[in-house]
Specification:
about 130 residues, alpha+beta, 3 helices, binds zinc ion
Amino acid sequence: MNLREARCLFTRLLTNDLMPWAYAQAYDPHSPLFGCEFALDEGRVKSPRLVRKAGMVFEAKDAVHGNRGEFRSLHHDGRAVDILVYRQGQYLSNGGDRAYRALGAYWKGLHELASWGYDFGDANHFSLSDGDRR
Ligand SMILES: [Zn+2]
């Protein structure tokens, strides 16, 4: 799968599968996502377009992932996003919350490459894996 294909697949899984499902769940009183809202958080991650223009390799010390040293974040390849979840207007800071667990489980079920950051201590990170990069 080339980068274009991966980015398009990631975007489709995110916008055409995960988010429509999540918003539908938000109206289901029996769902762990009942009453939830969602927001994308890329504030502390540099623009993929700018990083790509600079030559793909990025010295990441971003607070989002706490990485040290040289690392190519999947955010910069357009195949990762951080999703903030709010319930009744309150940000869910606990990544183990039932809402995050439902979102993560659904995401991982969408594709064999779909990876959820909870599995490595970053619950709001949703990505399409590339080798050992998640
Ligand atoms: Zn992330």
